[in-house]
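Page 37, continued from 36.
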């Protein structure tokens, strides 16, 4: 992915503008597709957790977001490289690998780290697909904090 970013910078200086826009849209679409697939699996993992573990992950997510905000380049938090000109790093992939681990503590930390990294990557994105992904991450964070969640049976009966 890094080589695509370098190639994109090269195209920006040598190619006409419409081609650059097309390449940017293609890169964003590929990133969105990967993150959306990962989000579905993260969401499944979160919903399988007991409520106490969900609250613990919610606290971990908030502390990870705060830690990322203190770094010079928040969207590269958790990445192995810190090239400022990269649109994203490999932190989400590393965190996703941790979220699929068999060790429960590592899994919870991976879930929290993935949510924090994707939150930072999609936070002020100008692309509609990434904004939609950001809203889904916010909804999942609300579920983890307990401010938003599945309706109870009594609420569902009252609505119907």
């Amino acid at each position: 992915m890094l080589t695509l970013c370098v190639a994109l910078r090269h195209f920006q200086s040598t190619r006409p503008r419409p081609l650059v826009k097309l390449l940017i849209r293609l890169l964003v679409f590929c990133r969105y597709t990967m993150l959306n697939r990962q989000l579905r699996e993260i969401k499944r993992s979160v919903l399988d957790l007991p409520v106490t573990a969900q609250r613990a992950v919610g606290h971990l997510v908030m502390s990870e977001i705060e830690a990322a905000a203190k770094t010079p380049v928040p969207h590269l938090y958790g990445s192995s490289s810190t090239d400022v000109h990269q649109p994203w790093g490999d932190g989400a992939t590393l965190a996703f690998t941790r979220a699929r681990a068999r060790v429960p503590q590592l899994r919870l930390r991976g879930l929290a780290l993935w949510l924090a990294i994707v939150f930072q990557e999609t936070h002020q994105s100008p692309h509609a697909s990434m904004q939609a992904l950001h809203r889904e991450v916010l909804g999942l964070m609300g579920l983890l904090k307990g401010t938003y969640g599945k309706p109870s049976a009594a609420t569902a009966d009252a609505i119907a």
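Residues 151-160 have pLDDT under 50 and may be disordered. Flag for discussion at group meeting. Residues 35-149 form one domain.
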